[in-house]
Write a structure and sequence with these properties.
455 residues; mainly alpha; two-stranded antiparallel ribbon; disordered N terminus
Length: 455
């Protein structure tokens, strides 16, 4: 647990000092009269006061000599009572306010906390024991106050984005993930736990474009406000109940550490997955085998092959080859002649020596594994889509292509690492691997359904 005494927590322009000082005090008669007001003892006799005024436990001395008792509630320090009352009211005040009235809504808590802090900081006549009691409640309350400030700033930011952000697509707004990192990290550090998650950690890990939108494109940045409010209310209840800030199962970690751990996990996971599909590739005698055997080709041969493939995988317009618009009612997939031409030229790329291609004058600086992953996945998908030829054979051929994509050794991709760290090229190949996994699962389901049908 972090020590908040003798430390300074900052958020934006707000500074919160959390500290304790060792001081002594002797209860004055006026304080005791206030303490006992409305209780069993309405006043302290002068003779009793004289006997007890120098006693270390003034209240206990009076109770012994007068026979009176003071309940825990009556004897509780005024600043603690006020702060507890404010904490009890805080959840409902936070849930029933607008940003405009926010300061007014939390004013009782702010005032009670300021009053309790003043007792600690100023030269008051409270004893060290009482000041320790006050400090025990103010320390977690100060953390709560700092998290409330972050919540307010996040709320204001969300409203500003709603007004200012221009939607790239009607009804959608695209806000960079990094816009909210400051708020997330500040809130998590107050809670000493990663109670708030960083969205799209995959894109963040590879420093790719990251926006606070879900898969359908809908904005997500306003969700942080609700999450923060939940944890603030939870903390306020726990402080009131136990006098301490709650603890959470996930330890606090910086975004840099999260990204580094994620990349390490991805590398281990990918390495194991490649080993699995290499074995499967070999056991099934998969015909799609990468080599550097083909090196007696010209620049023209290379360009012609890539143009045919690009037309096949990119230009899905209605034409004589029947490579038609995806989603159109008439889409029946490519005809056999288009599939055969694509397979023939993609097979060449499996065997092309890319060093020879560059030597022949082809400006082709993309790694071979990335090229083959795209080509294999695209051909595999078209084999799934087409109604031409034998459906089961097409699915089996598509399956072989996706397995070959998953068997490529990404560690042989020199362009995929910067000083040993996976980069954007690694990310691009990883995306293609995910495509292959999804399509392979689809094919296995289709083949399983086909095999289960009666002849």
């Amino acid at each position: 647990m972090l020590q908040y005494s003798n430390s300074l927590a900052k958020f934006g322009g707000v500074s919160v000092e959390l500290y304790s000082k060792s001081v002594r005090r002797t209860l004055t008669l006026s304080v005791l009269l206030t303490l006992f007001a409305g209780g069993v003892v309405s006043q302290v006799p002068d003779d009793v006061h004289e006997k007890c005024k120098d006693a270390r436990d003034y209240v206990g001395c009076i109770q012994v000599l007068t026979g009176a008792t003071v309940s825990k509630e009556e004897a509780e320090i005024e600043e603690i009572k006020n702060l507890k009352k404010a904490l009890a009211l805080l959840p409902s005040r936070l849930e029933n306010t607008s940003l405009r009235d926010f300061s007014m809504a939390i004013q009782p808590f702010t005032d009670a906390l300021a009053s309790a802090r003043a007792v600690i900081e100023a030269g008051s006549d409270y004893s060290l024991e009482d000041k320790t009691k006050i400090l025990t409640l103010t320390n977690p309350s100060l953390r709560l106050s700092a998290s409330i400030d972050i919540f307010r700033s996040t709320w204001r930011s969300g409203i500003d984005h709603d007004v200012a952000a221009s939607p790239s697509v009607i009804g959608h707004k695209f806000i960079s993930c990094f816009t909210y990192d400051f708020y997330i990290d500040g809130f998590n550090s107050m809670y000493e736990s990663n109670v708030l998650n960083y969205q799209h950690i995959f894109a963040r890990a590879f420093d790719a474009g990251c926006y606070l939108n879900n898969e359908s494109g809908r904005p997500m940045y306003r969700e942080y406000e609700g999450q923060m409010l939940y944890y603030i209310i939870d903390a306020s209840k726990e402080i009131l109940k136990a006098g301490s800030f709650p603890t959470y199962p996930f330890p606090y970690e910086s975004l840099d550490k999260i990204k580094a751990d994620y990349i390490e996990h991805i590398q281990i996971e990918t390495r194991d997955d490649i080993a699995k599909y290499k074995k499967l590739h070999e056991l099934e005698n998969n015909p799609w085998v990468e080599s550097e055997d083909l090196n007696n080709f010209s620049k023209r041969d290379f360009r012609r092959a890539i143009n045919i493939i690009n037309k096949f995988i990119s230009t899905r317009a209605i034409n004589n080859n029947a490579i038609v618009c995806v989603g159109c009612i008439s889409d029946k997939g490519p005809k056999l002649n288009a599939i055969i031409a694509a397979k023939e030229n993609i097979h060449k790329f499996y065997n092309y020596d890319f060093a020879t291609a560059v030597k022949n004058g082809n400006r082709f600086n993309i790694d071979k594994i990335f090229v083959l992953s795209i080509f294999s996945n695209s051909l595999g998908e078209e084999l799934i889509n087409t109604i031409h030829g034998n459906k089961k054979n097409n699915l089996k051929e598509a399956r072989e292509l996706f397995i070959s994509t998953l068997a490529f050794d990404i560690e042989n991709c020199l362009a995929c690492y910067d000083s040993g760290r996976p980069n954007a090229s690694f990310n691009a190949i990883y995306v293609q691997r995910n495509v292959a996994h999804k399509k392979l699962k689809k094919i296995d389901n289709l083949l399983s359904a086909s095999n289960s049908q009666p002849p």
